[in-house]
Design brief:
This protein is an alpha/beta fold. The protein has 2 domains: 199 residues, Alpha-Beta Complex (2-enoyl-CoA Hydratase, Chain A, domain 1); 47 residues, Lyase 2-enoyl-coa Hydratase, Chain  A, domain 2 (Orthogonal Bundle), CATH 1.10.12. The chain has 12 helices and 9 strands. 40% of the residues are buried.
Length: 260
Amino acid sequence: MARVRVDYEDHVAIVTLTRGDKMNALDEEMVQAILAAGAEVAASDARAVVLAGEGRSFCAGLDLQSFAKMAGMDVESWLMKRTHADANYMQEVAMTWRRVPVPVIAALQGAVFGGGLQLALGADIRIAAPDVQMAVMEMKWGLVPDMGGMALLPGLLRSDVLRLLTYTAAPVDAGQAERWGLATRVVSDPLAEARNLAGEIAGKSPSAIRAAKRLIDVAEAEARAEVLLAESREQIGLIGKPDQVEVVTAQMQKRAPVFK
């Protein structure tokens, strides 16, 4: 049975984890399917992505059977090998969504624990249901976050909050997650909200949206001088080009833009 389904609707890719009976826990097949979905969407002409999970939870983390498999593995070589640019195989579960060149919106419900949280962190925006519970769960198993969490969490959380969640592995509810920055917004129907937001983004200039995601990545990682140069480079690629001309024309004609 396929672990992930990818559908396309009106320039929006909808990526759905389909192991709902297991709370979308991450086993080997699920990891492979997530990476394949990320690569497929990145190569598509989608203008926005919705990342969701079937059933009562978005993703409850690593499948417990996966822990047992680690006992007989050469863990050092497996974890230290960079299989996807700067990331290893498991880190790419989150980082593939940062590499997707268009905005990714995660629709979250139920448990968003451990590897599931790190998967959600790969999204640009996280829309949570009121029943969401989010946890940096690894300390419960005597581990630390190692699927991209420590590359992504410091950009969202105060240092003391990051340390509290990491040291205790304590779940937080949707309201606290929103206040601390783990969730962007809490709504009654996160999938509908995510799809609406993705549709709104898909109606913007495709080239400007892609440039904006690249620019934000630079802004979050580089020194001021490089960010200022990146602003100029990206703007040069947009001003007077077909997408930008269509945006201006549509505004003047009071209509929705139509992009080729």
